[in-house]
Amino acid sequence: MKYNVLIGGAAGLGIDTISILVEKILKRKGFFIYSNKDYMSRVRGGHNFIQVRFGTEPIYSHWPELDVIIALDKETVEFHAERLCAAGVIICDESLKIEYSRTVKAPLAQMAAEVKNPRALGSAAAGALLKIFGQNLELVKEVFIEKFERETAESNYHAFQLGYEYAPKYFEISAANKDSHILINGNAAIAMGALAGGVSFYASYPMTPATSIMTQLSMRQDDTGIVVEQVEDEISAINMALGASYAGVRAMTGTSGGGFALMVEALSLQGAMELPLVVVNSQRPGPSTGIATRTEQSDLDFVLTAGHGEFPRMVLAVRNPEDAFYQTARALNIADQYQVLVIILTDQYLADAAQTIEPFDYSRISIDRYFAEAKDIQGERYKRYMPTESGVSPRIIPGKIAGAVVLSDSHEHNEYGHISESAEIRTAMMNKRMKKLELLAQEIQEPEYFGVEKPDMLLLGWGSMQGPMREAVELLMQEGKPVGALVFGDLYPLPTKLLKKYAGTAKKLINIEQNFTGQLAKLIRQETGIFMNDSILNYNGRQLDSYTICSRLKKEVL
């Protein structure tokens, strides 16, 4: 059984704090958690909400129907009451004029005043929520001690107890599992993966929804010894990362679509200099500023060819927090080994969505550096761009080997790094660089598959659509429909083995994407000649959920 809670109100009313408390308490009690955020681009006012889904089985996505609404303002009820299930409950302060049959109108503000902490109103609401779901107070106080300073923790916990005592019990929930998971969102997982993968330098300019990657890394500078630089713009960010990479440092940068657009010239600089670089693009709706705090998957076409001229790159999309951790570490190794650009695609939905997952297995992570040694270049001038059978030239750290000068230039150059306009050298350098695509093709991972072995209908998606599509397949299979889904992580070079296998047996191919033009479908058609029969596309800034996917498939396709 799974339950869904929505916490809503204007920015500044503390819905984040309530959500954190609720998520941590439920996790401590052994429940699986999935939460996602919907917030406006403003500091105060507007309508924001967070959805927390929990249960005794793993959860991979959000869900439209609600069991409980914590309404910090009247607008929350007006916007979301119609989503309540038949047994749904609203929790609000007694001052709100709300007419709904199952409403717990608690004196939340009065409770906060009683503990002499006006901001504890949200804790009182969280206490009422816990009682409504029939849970006891075991393990709760520890959450407040960890979250707040001593006096604040005491007043908030007291308010929580008052809310708990006031509310009735509406739901009977079976015992949960042992608390053996971690709860983490996509951006935090990217940051942890970067640290596990040996990143030493991260430069970025704040841009929603990528900013929290920088925040997470900056919080750990003292413990890890990395350098995190908040710079004046995205052009500086990527150029500083390239400079660090030239010096032998494992470097990254991150941004969203508009910031990535500013980085484009420097992407080509990477292509010419052949420096390892990982760039995270956390997507949001465009064009231009678009909707700064919402989600979309509309930058795939852009990142596949961003930059003038032709140069090799790898593009991958992270699918969930667990995948984000391991793929970020992998991206750093691939960039280093082949001296290429690796672009990681994520989006606002995944960036902010928190999920309970298995603890990270650091034994699966290695930090693989690829530097030439003095014995490899003795007896000759150092050839930074020496032609090799693989296309990967020997790389050294500037200043580490006596007499070896590391020349890098944005112009076309010869094997030593000197500028050249020779047609023969130009052809040789292009051939050398583009050979790396063959190596990258050997590194690609096949998409994740869910469903029956011989599906009549094959769904195709990428990145953050993994969770909703996984649950959609489960729902359709419960109805006896022979369906399967391929969810791509690696996008370029495009893996085709499983695609050709399942596309060869399926009667219908349907791409499911968060964009207007079906960008994955175009990439598949371009690389394989395989056409989709139908598309389920969404571009309203909000992520598709499994229920909506199933409904639209039945209405538009089946």
Structure description:
The protein has 558 residues and is an alpha/beta fold. It has four domains: 2-166, Pyruvate-ferredoxin oxidoreductase, PFOR, domain III (Pyruvate-ferredoxin Oxidoreductase, domain 3); 184-364, Rossmann fold, CATH 3.40.50; 371-443, no CATH class; 448-556, Rossmann fold. It is 38% helix and 21% strand. The protein is built from 22 helices and 20 strands. The strands form three sheets. An eight-stranded mixed β-sheet has the order 6-5-4-1-3-2-14-7, sandwiched between helices. Helix 21 (519-528) links the parallel strand 19 (508-513) and strand 20 (534-537). Helix 3 (108-114) crosses helix 4 and helix 7 (186-196) crosses helix 8 (211-218). The longest helix is centred in the middle third of the chain and has 18 residues, at 321-338. The radius of gyration is 26 Å and the shape is globular.
Q: Tell me the CATH topology of the largest domain.
A: Rossmann fold
By DSSP, the count of extended strands is 20
The spatial strand order of the largest sheet comes to 6-5-4-1-3-2-14-7
Radius of gyration: 26 Å
Helix-residue proportion: 25-40%
The number of helical elements comes to 22
Q: Main β-sheet: number of strands, strand sense, barrel status?
A: 8 strands, mixed
CATH architecture grouping of the largest domain: 3-Layer(aba) Sandwich
